[in-house]
Structures are given as structure tokens and as C-alpha cells.
Amino acid sequence: MHPSSSLQWFLLALPAAVLVAYCLTAFPHASSTRAVHPSLATLPNHSSSWEIYPDTFYKGGAYVNLPQGTVRHWLIGPEDGERIVLIHGLSVPAIIWKDVAPKLVSSGFRVLLYDLYGRGYSDAPQTTYDANLYTTQLALLMQHVRWDRAHIVGVSMGGGIAAAFSAQFPYLVSDKIALIASSGLITVSAPPRFVAPHRR
């Protein structure tokens, strides 16, 4: 082979080789397993957490595997009752509703409670903890329990999640949403949709 034809082949193959190398290194590859930090469910049986907040605190509890991790949830109250979801805040998991949930049940409501990702008995996936994570968690959980609509109640950060959920999935929200001491997760672009801006 003549030296100039070798050089020609090299020059012709070089851009293709560079393009292939770029594509193989520049684009992230999804890992086969996602890192998930364990929940309270992995604590030893002698842990005091089981006494303070047992996973059987509410009846009707179950675990569901969602794309981001395992979620602990409870369905309590009459099956034909009006549906309501209770979303806890950042500090205290679903046990925060211990006085409210039974009153709703005695009033005839079907109540869905759950632990947010990274809290209580739900897994803590290694991902970005933002409004999309939490609103998608609730949408998938409602799909799992076969609820097409529900009233939504959130306390503290749960109120921010409730507001974001109603904006992102309005067709899943019945006619009522309650925000209790709401904070967090409401972005600067979201409030104008709900509250008229103050003008001087």
C-alpha cells in the first residue's frame, strides 16, 4: 500500500473515530442499579424507633415498589368514602396525622397516608429531592391504589407538595385542597398562578 493512501484512509477514518469516542464518553449511561438508602424498616428489631413509630401505627398498611424506591402507605376508612390524601412535612412522617386521620375516618372519609421519600418507612433514593420527585411519588401511589381523584391536604412542606401536585396533576385533584402552615417547594414561578401579584 502506498504511504499516501494510508494517510488518506487515516484522515478519512479520523472524524468517524473522534465522533464515536465523543458519543461514548459525552453522554451519561444509566447505571443498572440506583443507590437507595434504607428506611426505618431496616432497623434492628430492638430499635426504639419501632416503639415510637411502628410501621403498623395505622391499619391497612402496605409497601409498594415505585421507580424511585419502596413507599410505605396506609389506606384507612370506608372503601366507599370520599377520598382524601394526607401529606406530611419534612420533619415528621405520616404519624403526624395520628389525631386527624381517625377523625376523618369517623366522618366517613377514605384516607390515604404515606411516608415521603427519605422519611419514615419509605426509601431514600439517591436523587434530586425536588417538587417533581414528590408530586410524581403521589401520582404513582394514587395510580397504584386505583384512585383517579382525591382531596389533597398537606402540612408544612407537604403543603408545598400539595400545591405543586395540584398544579402538575390538576385532573387528579377533587374540588378541595388544604394547605396547613404551608412552606417549601413552591417556586417563584408558581405563586402567580394562585395569587395575584401585589402592585403599588
UniProtKB/TrEMBL annotation:
<feature type="transmembrane region" description="Helical">
    <location>
        <begin position="150"/>
        <end position="171"/>
    </location>
</feature>
<dbReference type="Pfam" id="PF00561">
    <property type="entry name" value="Abhydrolase_1"/>
</dbReference>
<keyword id="KW-0472">Membrane</keyword>
<feature type="transmembrane region" description="Helical">
    <location>
        <begin position="177"/>
        <end position="196"/>
    </location>
</feature>
<keyword id="KW-0812">Transmembrane</keyword>
<dbReference type="InterPro" id="IPR050228">
    <property type="entry name" value="Carboxylesterase_BioH"/>
</dbReference>
<feature type="domain" description="AB hydrolase-1">
    <location>
        <begin position="84"/>
        <end position="181"/>
    </location>
</feature>
<dbReference type="InterPro" id="IPR029058">
    <property type="entry name" value="AB_hydrolase_fold"/>
</dbReference>
<dbReference type="InterPro" id="IPR000073">
    <property type="entry name" value="AB_hydrolase_1"/>
</dbReference>
<protein>
    <recommendedName>
        <fullName>AB hydrolase-1 domain-containing protein</fullName>
    </recommendedName>
</protein>
<keyword id="KW-1133">Transmembrane helix</keyword>
<feature type="transmembrane region" description="Helical">
    <location>
        <begin position="6"/>
        <end position="27"/>
    </location>
</feature>
